[in-house]
Specification:
With 176 residues, the chain is mainly α. The protein is 66% helix and 0% strand. Helix 1 runs antiparallel to helix 2.
């Protein structure tokens, strides 16, 4: 009776490069060795199920199952991690105004400090006292900044074409 271990080692040596190449075309290179080891571990356990001369296609079939399992595990892992991870970057505050070009234009005309106080209070929903803490100023200073920012935004919205100093339709003096 032939030595099963020696026969399997011969199959392993002969087909490892082909199985590794097969895996490398389907998964990240870092995963090829581990998956190839899994393929041959399964092949060793099920070596009685293969017909002599059909080892490579049989190994490819085992490898295809391993690739499918690997992809499923990676997808589950990615989905599970996504539940617990914070987004890498938050959208810009002005992205909230993409649906209203006039408001977006007026928002861009504000200074950074004006946008910041408005974003804290209006977009983030902070109370003025909380915004003051976030800005590192007193509550009174935050209230004044908020008032000025709201006025600047209102003026920018009234100005045609984005020039807050230009008289707009709403701010034009009535004709006498």
């Amino acid at each position: 009776m032939p030595d099963a271990r020696a026969e399997f080692e011969a199959v392993y040596r002969r087909h490892l490069p082909a199985v590794s190449a097969y895996l490398a075309r389907r998964v990240d290179r870092a995963d090829v060795e581990d998956l190839a080891a899994d393929v041959f571990a399964i092949a060793w356990r099920k070596r009685g199920a293969v017909t002599e001369g059909e080892e490579l296609p049989w190994l490819y079939r085992i490898a295809s199952y391993q690739v499918a399992n690997h992809r499923r595990r990676a997808a589950v892992r990615a989905n599970a991690l996504a539940l617990f991870s914070a987004p890498d970057a938050a959208p810009a505050a002005d992205a909230a105004f993409d649906g209203d070009p006039e408001l977006a234009r007026a928002w861009r005309s504000l200074t950074g400090a004006q946008r910041e106080v408005l974003a804290h209070v209006v977009l983030d929903g902070l109370a003025v006292s909380e915004a003051a803490i976030a800005l590192g100023v007193s509550a009174n200073a935050a209230s004044i900044r908020l008032h000025r920012a709201k006025k600047a935004l209102a003026d920018a919205l009234r100005a045609p074409g984005g020039n807050p100093d230009a008289p707009g339709e709403r701010s034009a003096a009535p004709a006498t």
